[in-house]
Structures are given as structure tokens and as C-alpha cells.
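call fold(seq) -> C-alpha cells
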Amino acid sequence: MGGIVSNNLLERITEKSAHIGVIGQGYVGLPLALVFREAGFKVTGFDVDPAKVAAIGRGESFIRHIGAQRVADAIRSGEYTATADFDRLSRCDAVLICVPTPLGLHREPDNSFIHATAREIASRLRRDQLIVLESTTYPFSTRTIPKVAGDEF
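ret:
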């Protein structure tokens, strides 16, 4: 093991054989997934919205600056798929979290999407996975995540 990221994972990333998962296929996650696919990685985009997943599967874009042709090309390549099946997270070597962090009534960030995503990942986490939080949040906000009945972590 070489530091935080294992040598095996570093090799897969360098060789572009790593499978990338991007959770959240909105205005941050979808472009990020496409960039990874265009760089030569196999990518799975995850989203809880089945309508969004279906639109991506049809090669449609719902983001103004992302053309439908770009999404369609990615889908047609077979190197990018979108799904609502979070059990497929265990197949990913790197998982990037790109979920919303809306502001609450008092303009504080609502981290509930990050917390829910962390629980989804934790139940499927495996050795040699890299987890990256891309969602906007404040420093140290992920040091403690509120416990929910049934949490194992």
C-alpha cells in the first residue's frame, strides 16, 4: 500500500483502466462524468432521479451548456452509463460525490444529501476504492455525520 491510495489503484488510474463512479448527474456531476469518459475511463453516473437517468440513457442533456450530442456520443461509446442502482458502486475504483448542498433557511448548507450519499457508499465500500467529495460544504463538516438508526459506521 502506498499512502492513502494503493499502488494497485494508482496503476489502474494511470493506465486508465480504473472504473469511475460519479454520484449526482446534475450540473457538476454530468460534465465531470463526461470529462472522465472523454479522457478514456469507463464511467458510471449515479443519480436518485430515475427521470434524469432515463434522459441520459436516451442521450439527452438537461443542462444548457452540455449538448445532447455529447451525452449521446458518451452513451453510444458504451464507456458511460447512468443508473439509479447504487449497488453498482462496489464495481467502481473511484467514487466522486457531486450531490447538491442547498442553503437552508438561515443560509447554512444542508449537508443531508452528502450524509445520505455517505451511507450509500459505506454499505458498499470495498478495499482499494478512492472516495472524493466534490460537493460544496464548509471545512470540517464531514468529520462527524449524524447517526441514523441502523447506521453501521
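The mean pLDDT is 90.
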